[in-house]
Amino acid sequence: MLAKPRPLDPVGGVEASVAAEAAGLDALLGHLKPIEIIERSVRESFRGEVAAVSSFGADSAVLLHMIAKIDRSLPVIFLDTGKHFEETLGYRDALVADFGLTDVRVIKPDEAALERVDPTGRLHETDTDACCNVRKVEPLARGVEPFRAWFTGRKRFQASTRAALPVFEAVGSRIRINPLARWTTSDQADYMRAHALRENPLVAYGYLSIGCFPCTQPVQPGEDARSGRWAGHAKTECGIHLSGLEKSLTDASL
């Protein structure tokens, strides 16, 4: 006897639908110029339902400059982990002023969670994954929860783990958009020069990928841009771009 078909899992059905939507958008729009991808996403595909996530790190100016040309009121989410370089916080404020961004949303870790898992503020010394989870992954899940999609500045050249990065990708029931995915270091540098964009001051000291100060160091010659993150550890991503975020986004507490 044939087994009775099970009802479609609502969550699984939504995620499958979003995965198909992301693949369709990648095929339709992924080949366009970054600013065209942003414009089509903001004004058509995700009108009123998209934000940007920015670290205001080494190369954040390019994506934010493009966004400002399309819509200065687009929400920009910044994770204040409590462990940023002072230079990064100053750079954030400078770029906001440069581009006239009007809706920067600063998201912080949950105080009760910090008190529970990192009361001394030194969790990064013993468990970098747990530190990133409480200071980045869970806060970002709260930050993007109101939106159907969000922009990042990730690029394929930044690390081997990003070599196959699509422009549109599904994250649970939402879509992450990487308009600059196909860009090279030359594309990045040319755009910065052409528009006279200011750099994060830490770049001059060899910080080519900038995160929290305890876990970031200058990049050595010949290494990829993210080699200075969690140097000496197998860790290459904080988790906001991995499955941990997907789990947080589907948590019942959101």
UniProtKB/TrEMBL annotation:
<comment type="pathway">
    <text>Sulfur metabolism; hydrogen sulfide biosynthesis; sulfite from sulfate.</text>
</comment>
<feature type="active site" description="Nucleophile; cysteine thiosulfonate intermediate">
    <location>
        <position position="238"/>
    </location>
</feature>
<dbReference type="Pfam" id="PF01507">
    <property type="entry name" value="PAPS_reduct"/>
</dbReference>
<feature type="binding site">
    <location>
        <position position="212"/>
    </location>
    <ligand>
        <name>[4Fe-4S] cluster</name>
    </ligand>
</feature>
<dbReference type="InterPro" id="IPR014729">
    <property type="entry name" value="Rossmann-like_a/b/a_fold"/>
</dbReference>
<keyword id="KW-0560">Oxidoreductase</keyword>
<keyword id="KW-0963">Cytoplasm</keyword>
<protein>
    <recommendedName>
        <fullName>Adenosine 5'-phosphosulfate reductase</fullName>
        <ecNumber>1.8.4.10</ecNumber>
    </recommendedName>
</protein>
<comment type="function">
    <text>Catalyzes the formation of sulfite from adenosine 5'-phosphosulfate (APS) using thioredoxin as an electron donor.</text>
</comment>
<dbReference type="GO" id="GO:0070814">
    <property type="term" value="P:hydrogen sulfide biosynthetic process"/>
</dbReference>
<dbReference type="GO" id="GO:0051539">
    <property type="term" value="F:4 iron, 4 sulfur cluster binding"/>
</dbReference>
<feature type="binding site">
    <location>
        <position position="132"/>
    </location>
    <ligand>
        <name>[4Fe-4S] cluster</name>
    </ligand>
</feature>
<dbReference type="GO" id="GO:0043866">
    <property type="term" value="F:adenylyl-sulfate reductase (thioredoxin) activity"/>
</dbReference>
<feature type="binding site">
    <location>
        <position position="215"/>
    </location>
    <ligand>
        <name>[4Fe-4S] cluster</name>
    </ligand>
</feature>
<dbReference type="GO" id="GO:0005737">
    <property type="term" value="C:cytoplasm"/>
</dbReference>
<keyword id="KW-0479">Metal-binding</keyword>
<feature type="domain" description="Phosphoadenosine phosphosulphate reductase">
    <location>
        <begin position="51"/>
        <end position="218"/>
    </location>
</feature>
<feature type="binding site">
    <location>
        <position position="131"/>
    </location>
    <ligand>
        <name>[4Fe-4S] cluster</name>
    </ligand>
</feature>
<dbReference type="GO" id="GO:0019379">
    <property type="term" value="P:sulfate assimilation, phosphoadenylyl sulfate reduction by phosphoadenylyl-sulfate reductase (thioredoxin)"/>
</dbReference>
<dbReference type="GO" id="GO:0004604">
    <property type="term" value="F:phosphoadenylyl-sulfate reductase (thioredoxin) activity"/>
</dbReference>
<keyword id="KW-0408">Iron</keyword>
<dbReference type="InterPro" id="IPR004511">
    <property type="entry name" value="PAPS/APS_Rdtase"/>
</dbReference>
<dbReference type="InterPro" id="IPR002500">
    <property type="entry name" value="PAPS_reduct_dom"/>
</dbReference>
<keyword id="KW-0411">Iron-sulfur</keyword>
<comment type="similarity">
    <text>Belongs to the PAPS reductase family. CysH subfamily.</text>
</comment>
<dbReference type="GO" id="GO:0046872">
    <property type="term" value="F:metal ion binding"/>
</dbReference>
